[in-house]
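Open question from group meeting: does this chain pack into something compact, or does most of it stay loose? Before anyone orders reagents, we agreed to write out a predicted structure and look at it together. Recording both the input and the output here so the notebook holds the full record.
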Amino acid sequence: MAGVPQKPRRSRACLWGCVGALAAVVVIVVVVVVLVVALAGSDGSPENPPSADVRVTSCGVDAATRLPSAGLEIRNHSSKTSTYGVTVEFRAPNGTRLSEGAALSLTVAPGQKVTTTAAGKDQVTQKVTCKVTKVNRIAG
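Structure tokens returned:
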């Protein structure tokens, strides 16, 4: 019984080398994705922060619904068309937070001014002050 040909045996070194290369590629892809997401959410330079692009133009409580609202003006000072997400806090005269609201403006061109409203989600029975607490500007 001579000579039944046997399949050549592959080295495990090749297997571990391939697994190591694949792991390295996965790590690199994850790092790149994390960096892109982090930088996309912070489209602001020190000389032009997103918060400088938003101002409150009105602040009050609707008499019928008792919901607070803030009129907002957004002016894109960046060089790219951007989407803005703005969060507003509605406070009592003593500083207590009574409600929170948000506004979203899509495709604001460089230099363009838009107006929008952030409405609170909780009914209130007193006068409020409005404060922008967060501005996200995403270029693209």
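Observations to bring back to the group:
The radius of gyration is 27 Å.
The helical segments are 12-40.
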